[in-house]
Design a protein that fits this description.
Helices cover 89% and strands 0% of the residues. By secondary structure, it is mainly α. The longest helix has 59 residues. The radius of gyration is 35 Å and the shape is flat.
Length: 184
């Protein structure tokens, strides 16, 4: 992009320089125009670098803020859920706590992120509690069955389309063969 901008700026400077040279025959305005074009390019390229650096800094800060919020939340929610699971009180978990538990267990089984110590303890407590383990197993089985059913429906619809196409092709071939045999 920077090379393209430099090219455009050079074209503009060439056009203006040619006009000045044709009309005045003096080289001084041409040199001034090229110097101004070069300084303009330097100014805008530094400005672009500065904006890019600011965007990177902002993205890093947002990432750190999200990480800190997750850490704070894990420090509050995970020990409370672990204590309920250790006491055998899976049924007393709120829907929000169950969803949080499901997300953390999925993160640990899918290797989709680094777990915090409290989240790791939560996963361990979930796997040792029989009711929680059965709940997670049943949930995963239902999700797998639903995904399998969706895939079967997609395959079935594609096969029915192919079947219709094959029937039409077969009828056309039979008609052709019948006509060609009738001509003999």
């Amino acid at each position: 992009m920077r090379i393209f901008n430099l090219f455009l700026l050079g074209c503009l400077a060439c056009t203006i320089s040619a006009w000045f040279f044709v009309h005045s025959g003096n080289l001084a305005p041409i040199i001034v125009i090229w110097i101004l074009a070069f300084l303009t390019y330097i100014y805008f390229s530094r400005r672009a670098k500065k904006k890019k650096a600011e965007a990177i800094t902002l993205a890093r800060k947002e990432h750190e803020d999200r990480k800190q919020k997750r850490l704070n939340f894990a420090d509050q929610a995970a020990p409370r859920i672990v204590s309920k699971l250790n006491a055998g009180q899976f049924s007393t978990l709120s829907q929000f706590e169950r969803n949080y538990l499901i997300n953390i267990v999925e993160m640990s089984t899918n290797d989709s992120g680094e777990l915090l110590p409290n989240e790791l303890a939560l996963t361990q407590a979930a796997m040792t509690d029989t009711a929680t383990y059965n709940f997670l197993t049943l949930r995963n089985a239902k999700l797998a069955a639903r995904n399998q059913q969706e895939m079967l429906q997609k395959v079935s619809s594609r096969l029915s389309t192919a079947k219709v196409a094959n029937i039409a092709t077969g009828l056309a071939a039979a008609k052709y063969l019948g006509e060609s045999m009738g001509d003999d």
